[in-house]
Amino acid sequence: MAAPALEVDNLVKVYARRGQPPVRAVDDMSFSVPRGEIFGLLGPNGAGKTTLLKLLTTLLRPSSGAARIEGFDVALRPLEVRRRIALVLQETAGELLLNVRDNLLTFARFHGVAAPAARRRAAAVMEMFQIAAEAERKVQDLSGGTRRRVQVAKMFMADTPVLFLDEFSTGMDPILKRAVMGYLREEAARGRTIVLTTQILSEAEELCGDILIMNRGRQVARGDLNALKLLSAGVSDVALTFAELPPGLPAAVAALAPLRSRLDGNTVELSLKAEEARVLEIVGELSRMGRVLRVEMGGASLEDVFIELMRGQ
Ligand SMILES: Nc1ncnc2c1ncn2[C@@H]1O[C@H](COP(=O)(O)OP(=O)(O)OP(=O)(O)O)[C@@H](O)[C@H]1O
Ligand SMILES: [Mg+2]
Hints:
Blueprint: E1 6-17, E2 20-33, E3 38-42, H1 49-56, E4 64-69, E5 72-73, H2 78-83, E6 85-88, H3 100-110, H4 115-128, H5 144-154, E7 162-166, H6 174-189, E8 193-198, H7 201-207, E9 210-215, E10 218-223, H8 225-231, E11 235-242, H9 249-255, E12 260-264, E13 267-273, H10 276-287, E14 292-298, H11 302-311
Parallel strand pairs: 3-8, 3-9, 6-7, 7-8
Antiparallel strand pairs: 1-2, 1-4, 4-5, 9-10, 11-13, 11-14, 12-13
Helix pairs in contact: 3-4
């Protein structure tokens, strides 16, 4: 049987820092990801997501433990690994001195795509990412968002089996982001494995069939969305829109100690961890404070799950 796309065994990365205690950025992580999955790595700032991605893509060497990409050990067979992956890192911006087209062609060449095919593909990919007008411009002269497009566009220049994207949508406008999410889904449907990190939980919620939440270098939870939602069962989302915001409302909401709350115009949104009957009671109490135009209630979003899990840390 083919090896899984990703296998991680007791992986550890310790950053030694002069005069300061070492940081265990990845602290004994073990998991595996089957081929063709869109796998989401979630966690707060500093959780170790980028470090984990760097270990998996041979940019950093593990302090201990092992990781394999399609069966190839990242520390022992780095070249075999590199041939099989494409990577967009949080801080990279492409080859700054090359123009956009050459960035794409260089990547294709490294992965053995023949020149005529690469040219055709570059033309198509530049259309997909709306960077055709920028083809001859050096990447260093582009805006941050456009650089990001070039980076992500590279992923589509060769058929490397595993893609790694560190916060790919940063700086992308919502329309392009939506299109890229569609492209990623298509790639996964064709059998490529996609590993992405994100802070935008709705993105993970929409894209990822399998999610790992980490904090302080360790796994906090793992599963598909439904499994993760079950972990925080009993969380409800409530949104109330008033004709006019009642003056006492912010205080009343604060007194409920919601997991999360937000005031937007005349609408208040809150997430409550409580029995359903109690949630209904609360909605009733809040509704009596003013004239309510609209009430919405729903189960937990991934954001609620995330907040709930981090609370327990
Ligand atoms: N080169 C480095 N040297 C020392 N410590 C580092 C280094 N890179 C990261 N760290 C530390 O390792 C921990 C994990 O950092 P990492 O960048 O992997 O987190 P992250 O989950 O990607 O965070 P973010 O969401 O902010 O991108 C943090 O405590 C960070 O300060
Ligand atoms: Mg990061």
